[in-house]
Design goal:
Length: 317
């Protein structure tokens, strides 16, 4: 597990970060950031991150008709042989569901289709109802196959992006031979030795707007993830809905938090916890404290709660 530390000298941060190698590129409706502690390793790190992102997109995307996940979702009742990457991604999604007692559940795909957040798989109407639950997913590791029952649709948005960040950071670190930070749409993983003072991260509702109200923190290892109901939405105005689903109803979560950021031993664990906190609602601070997960929770009215050692100083909301 890692913890967030307050960044207290913005001028020192700016000068320090200028000495690092850094690049970014668009991905999944947001942007990816790759930073290294040695400029000479940036090219190799960037190439490995892009390769990892492309592999995860082809395997796990809910927005590509040719993805492995799309094929699996179109094959109810069949044992579908999948790549190691997709098998591991689904297994990690089920692990996340177990760790959160089903608060983070990968079988929310049908709800996301009904809410027009994910594209439909067919012309058949889809109803919103409680999700089938992760226990209906059958994994056959010796044969690398997965079976879904009729009515179960997987969406890996709550976990695969974070898993991709962890995988990309590990690959980039090995290729670059130095410390690496990888951010994929706000899900951040670091590997290798951090720069002096740690990796400086701006936490806001939306990673695409670094100037929005938020907080600057630093991490030395592991990962940091932010989940928010203010992004990945469908519709406009009062009819707009967000993508974080309450598995018990199949509807978007209606809770007290608009944004939750968590730091943990990996980006995967951080994202699992930040998503679970949105779903758990008023019980989230206690759950995060019990699990020793430093977190920053922002209510709909802008009030901020810091738990489990997340620094309280420096918030500019």
């Amino acid at each position: 597990m890692t913890s967030a530390q307050q960044q207290t000298d913005p001028r020192r941060e700016q000068l320090h970060q200028q000495a690092l190698g850094r690049d970014e590129f668009p991905v999944w409706g947001g942007h990816a950031v790759v930073a290294v502690t040695d400029q000479a390793g940036l090219s190799a790190a960037l190439a490995h991150v892009k390769r990892t992102v492309a592999a995860f997109d082809l395997a796990c995307s809910s927005f590509r008709e040719d993805s492995e996940l799309a094929l699996l979702n179109r094959s109810p009742g069949e044992d579908v042989v999948v790549s190691k990457l997709l098998f591991d991604a689904v297994r990690e999604a089920i692990r996340a569901a177990r760790l959160t007692d089903g608060a983070v559940d990968p079988t929310v795909g049908q709800s996301l289709i009904a809410l027009r957040i994910n594209p439909p798989l067919s012309d058949q109407p889809v109803r919103i109802e409680p999700v089938p639950g992760y226990t209906v997913v059958r994994l056959d590791e010796p044969n690398s196959s997965i079976r879904l029952p009729a009515g179960a649709q997987l969406d890996l948005g709550a976990t695969a992006k974070a898993l991709a960040a962890d995988s990309a950071a590990a690959a980039a670190r090995a290729a670059a031979g130095c410390g690496v930070l990888v951010g994929l749409c706000g899900d951040i993983a670091v590997a290798g030795e951090a720069p002096e003072g740690g990796w400086q991260i701006r936490v806001t509702d939306d990673h695409r707007d670094a100037n929005a109200p938020g907080q600057c923190v630093a991490i030395q290892a592991g990962g940091l993830a932010t989940s928010s109901v203010t992004v990945r939405r469908s519709g406009d105005g009062p009819d707009a809905v967000h993508h974080l689903i309450n598995p018990g109803t199949g509807l978007p979560v209606d809770g007290p938090w608009r944004t939750v950021s968590v730091t943990a031993a990996s980006c995967m664990d951080a994202n699992t916890a930040s998503t679970a906190a949105i779903v758990l609602g008023e019980h989230a601070p206690e759950w995060l404290e019990e699990n020793g997960l430093p977190a920053r929770l922002v209510a709909h009215d802008g009030a901020v709660t810091h738990v489990a050692g997340w620094p309280a100083e420096g918030d500019d909301l």
